[in-house]
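User: For a benchmark we're assembling, each entry needs the component sequences followed by a predicted structure for the full assembly. Here are entry 17's components. Please fill in the structure.
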Amino acid sequence: MAGQSSRTHLVIAVILGIICGFVIGILIGALAINDSDPETNAAYERSIREADSSISKKLMETMESYNIRENLKHLTENPHVAGRKYSKELAEWMQERFKDWGMTSADILSYEVLLSFPSEIKGEENRIELLSETGNVIFTSQLKEDSLGETALERDDLLPPFNAYSPAGIVTGKLVYANYARVEDFHFLTRNLSLNITDKIVIARYGKIYRGDKVRNAAEVGAKGLILYSDPGDYAVPDAKVYPDGIFLPGTGCQRGSTYLGRGDPLTQGYPAKDYAYRHSEESIADSLPAIPVHPIGYDDATEFLKRLDGNEVVSEWRGNLENLTYRYGPGFAGADINKEVRMNIYSSNVRGMAYNTIGMIEGEVEPDRYVIMGNHRDAWAFGAIDASGGTAVMMEVARAFCKMVDNGWRPRRTLVFGSWGAEEQGLIGSTEWVEEFSKNLGERAVTYLNLDVAIEGTYMLDASATPNMKQLVYDTAKLVKDPENTGKSIYDIWVERSQTKENEEPHIGGLGSGSDYASFLQQIGISAFDMSYTYDRVAYPVASYPMYHSVYETFYLVDKLYDPGFKFHLTTGHIMGELMRALSDSLIIPMSCVDYATDVEMYFNNLKSGEIGKRILEENVSLDEFESAVNNFTSAAAGFEERLSKVDKTNPIEIRMFNDQIMQLERTFVDPLGLPGRPLTRHIVFAPSSKNSYASDKFPGIVDAMFDIDNNPDVNKWDIVKQQISIATYTIQSAASSLKPYTGSA
Amino acid sequence: MAGQSSRTHLVIAVILGIICGFVIGILIGALAINDSDPETNAAYERSIREADSSISKKLMETMESYNIRENLKHLTENPHVAGRKYSKELAEWMQERFKDWGMTSADILSYEVLLSFPSEIKGEENRIELLSETGNVIFTSQLKEDSLGETALERDDLLPPFNAYSPAGIVTGKLVYANYARVEDFHFLTRNLSLNITDKIVIARYGKIYRGDKVRNAAEVGAKGLILYSDPGDYAVPDAKVYPDGIFLPGTGCQRGSTYLGRGDPLTQGYPAKDYAYRHSEESIADSLPAIPVHPIGYDDATEFLKRLDGNEVVSEWRGNLENLTYRYGPGFAGADINKEVRMNIYSSNVRGMAYNTIGMIEGEVEPDRYVIMGNHRDAWAFGAIDASGGTAVMMEVARAFCKMVDNGWRPRRTLVFGSWGAEEQGLIGSTEWVEEFSKNLGERAVTYLNLDVAIEGTYMLDASATPNMKQLVYDTAKLVKDPENTGKSIYDIWVERSQTKENEEPHIGGLGSGSDYASFLQQIGISAFDMSYTYDRVAYPVASYPMYHSVYETFYLVDKLYDPGFKFHLTTGHIMGELMRALSDSLIIPMSCVDYATDVEMYFNNLKSGEIGKRILEENVSLDEFESAVNNFTSAAAGFEERLSKVDKTNPIEIRMFNDQIMQLERTFVDPLGLPGRPLTRHIVFAPSSKNSYASDKFPGIVDAMFDIDNNPDVNKWDIVKQQISIATYTIQSAASSLKPYTGSA
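Assistant: Structure for entry 17:
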């Protein structure tokens, strides 16, 4: 037994020993491998780690509406137009916050640029006057907006209504009414009505197109001045309350705004306005600045001029909503007023001033050289509580929340960049100078640019614009964000309901024009972009924009009391922007769809071909076949790419990076260094701001412009230009296709 | 004892058990980790593997001079100018070889481009005639080069001497001699000698500058035609043997060549000449084509004209080496010949024809989306045994050797690309169309472009040109390649000795102009580039180029019997190109030095500042301070980059890739999409072909051009243009600096 027992003990002991050694061995073996180069595996493991999607919720929960309200309160305490006192203070205040929150870097980048200001000399107030036949002033437009009892609006440091970059000048003449001052409006006046506009002063209402295009159009038909006014038909709603009782524009409200036709500092086009920059003379860049004086007025003042107009009654589409008034074309005044004239007195001047950008960065853990950029402009014509300090207040809270996540141990795969731009209002200047200064780094590194200008202009639903590759991500994000009204729905559900999206369709996401700071990212470098606002019910309220746009009444009160008490809609926009940034910066595979881009390009092509332009092209026997075959090639290349992407080896960090590079670089392929005709810095061949309306986005703008009004175009080479633009579009789409094909084999 | 023994046994058994279990455990533990995802670790391990440097030697040993000779024999069997019979055959022959050798892909990419040919109609032979005063032809230049007894040179399908793109025309006039027809030569004639060149026919010798620049210069001073001839002073050596007894130019030899001033298909500038391309009219691109007839002759013919010239005897620098001849300026003839005139009869025409590129690729194992490109042009004016079929023969052997290495189990980290270009001779057309077609992919993916046009034009030493970041790699490579003369030295040693390099210096590596196919890679995209030949002793033989350049005498015989019997120098060029490709495609860190780039830029700046240009700029009180500070910033950014690079975590493939991306992209930062003034497709701000001589490379060409002859420039804005160019150079260097700085923190 003893022998038996001892043998049993022996066996048991040996087995235990083996097991024990085995376990220790496995542990040591495993650890030894892991420990042989612990950093190696940590870096490698991190480089193939999928994003932690639980961060989504935590990030949103970290944002507080209270903070957004506090931010906005501070931002709107003082007027903060570029080039004046509070401009730098706020840039520095943001920099300090970014530093306090622990960002990797927070810098102020400054540029000396051409700005425009009204004169500050007594007697040199910009104004429109009605002159008696003996030349006496019998009416003067308001020199500044009425404070409506709010003492803050009486401050001396508020800029009165004016149109930036208007030349100074005093011009007197007969008045002509030109509706929205679009090309087609002037065609109607000159062609249909045979009205001669030379040396007239034009009065036109704001809306439909960018005001800079209105001035150019007026100057092109020979007008000597342009008065812009806000018609109640475009900025109010019958019987609805006006400020301060409601959100609609009172008769004293006035839309400031730039009339510059370029992007970025007018004197240093294509290059950053640094100390070393060569500055062109204003004469040499005259094409991009208004040629005639231009000035904005409110509808109370406008009535004094419009009610006196002579001429036929306008067609119904030209009629605004001013009461007790028959809209007429002019020229000049009727009846007792027949010899009265209008005088514009403009004393503005262009001066050099500083634009400050505050740039905060949170360095990515795996790919610090890939940038997901969020941007918003900090400057405003007055208090800017909506445009764009509401967006600034939100961006700061998004930034703070990300810093908090980093404090808690999370780090995004890619670098987050927060850009607070100066001098957007004058012509997207701060963002453009930054894009120009860092064009090479951005071209190499920027994944996408997310813009938040006006965060909320209403509380009805989401209004989004984006390059096509971002659309699915926007839908997915909207599904994750709760309706702030506590309906239990997502803002995606609300969007679908309220935009009356058809079954099997998605809510509309618009194209990108040139209305805000995304323009230079997209147009000069080819960086995919996104822009959004929470908006109002555009069916119920068919206004041209939120009514208080660029008026002195864009106050903290307007937002805090009338628009978004509790700031929950502001918070919602923060949730959207934050989640977009998180997904773009942390996903293993960048969530931008090349197939969606191809699908939309195909749709644009089909719309072009089957539309008026396509019909006219084919009528002329100009072929679209090669263009169509490029589009088909792009579609199948994108499908092939997605197929390969679906099989990506997610344990191979280089393979992941290669796919991501292609996803990121697709947008770059649409940019032609030679630019669009006459627009060397507007380079995107698929989308560009319409040359007739900088706010709008044209598809295949080179072709659209070449075809514009072609049958009235006297240029003998006009069809050659069309062919050339079709060829360039074809080349560009082939380039896009090629970028998505396998790396070898070029046939 | 038993107890004792059994306890001992027990202990031993347990210990053995533990050890046994331990060992097995360690093995299992280690293997389990390794085996948990074997592919993972294979891909990961490969992605951080250092290049196997033993491949160097194997690769060189795989190349055989015999194969190069066989290749050249085949390539030079027939004339193979672009657009004629053997052009496509050879492209296909190369494609077949590439396929046979097992390349990942081998494609032919074709473009329909504007070419130029002499007329084939009897009586329409291009020629220069001497006319009697009654208009009778008393002398006619040779209609084709003498075969010198070689029947192959009598073939009908050989193109006679002509200058491509010369307009057709018959012009008669008095002759003026203009030395090399440089700007300064014409200045001398018109300013110093007050000679009126209007309506004269100019005769000038080949050499010093690109022939296209000569025609432009002659046309600009009003000449009605230009005769180019090869002077024995530039293409022969006194008493040295001429072809077929030696390598020097016989009096019947004649230099063909293009006179086009652009790059790439003249009709589709900036875009590939595909089916869908819009083609400009020849009139609209007239600036880039010669405005007056131009024709090349040999020195036997030239003597007939030069010996009759009237006027003063030329200054000594204008004197060539024609015997029994006094070089005179003209105008017109002297003595008995006073009423004789010269008539140029040119019947060439521009026609559309095909350019074929054969593109072979060997896909990289780790980073297939990174391209190391070797290129050579396949077309030749006649047999092209030197220019550039020698290079083609070598490239094929390099390609074959790489395929062999792949057969043997090796794969480069990055993709190898072999580009065989068509229509280089007409104006770098094939390579430019390819660069244009794939500009986006190349901008994103190309590590470097290695050019081999003329492989050997002598057997004396290496002649290399490169972007500065490639220089160290070129020296390192030259040290690895053995002198083919079996001296036991390296070709680096030979280079140092024969170029009389000073101690502590390196042999000279030149800048890149526009003489060969690297130009569009460098100028349109900003791809780092290298170009080389094995060259002759330029001190002993001060010829303008290898003497048989572009003549019909560039035969297989010339190379096989006179230049490189045994082809060992050809093999040497293969060793250099192969090793460069290997190092660039397989090294973990791309062996291109950012510090060397900064060092050279600093030197260029200092040379500019201390030279004539800088002195004149400072005299005018134009500041170079900001420019200097940008240069210093670049230098310190490069140093910082190298410091960080030296600490790269070589176990982190993403970190490796990020550093490599910066190394690769540095060259891109020098490219300005807006281009140089008047040269929208010549975009490199640091190097560009001199606008006065396309063969040469200017440093800071924008500034150099703006300063050219500034004191005689009547433009009132001339100093503004200088300031603007200094500002653009400053911006560009700041961009380069910024690209090398850490990814976050932009101040």
